[in-house]
Amino acid sequence: MNKFKEMSLELALLLSIPLVKIIYFLLNNPGRGAVSLVTDIDRKIPFVKEFVVPYMIWYVFVFAVLIYFCFKDRKVYHRTLVAINLSLLICYAVYFVFQTTVPRPQLAGNDIFTHMVEFIYTIDRPYNCFPSIHSLVSFILIMAINRSKIKNRMNFSIITGISVSIILSTLFIKQHVILDAIAAILLGRLVFNFVYKIDMERMGKWFRKQYLSLTMKKKLGT
Prior knowledge:
two-stranded parallel ribbon
């Protein structure tokens, strides 16, 4: 029972991602002005609607990998979760001061892939692009499995392969431009390495100490 409770609390930490992402929707507009970072390279990248599949898989893939880490490598789970949330907050700060947009192609066709792209375009306005969150989180997962004690040929290949396909998908379905992906990879590497240098155990003890101190003061006050 205690083990179940412990795992439930650990998995509950995943809720931090959707909670933090509320900020994304508040910023997903051109109200502060929006610029385009499209380059000649982006203009040469074709629109490939089939890449919408790995793009949409991202939403399940991220949580599936984090749950896998939670059960198999708790240290990597905690650090990856911190790195993702910290990176998201940095992205939102960038979106607030430097909003970008990506021109989308005119969709034609009545096939499943076109409808899937249409759905993505409908639920996600073409702002909050630089850096790309899809690319950022995917790259952090690559770094995480590379650092994990459970790394083997199979899990490394699966996580890396899917992550790379997601990063490419952001370009091929015209959700992002190449500068968005490059910025995401650089930011992901910087934040992940920074988080790994922090003594998480010591920090956790400090937060617990502060919490107990506040609780004790409250009890004495009443």
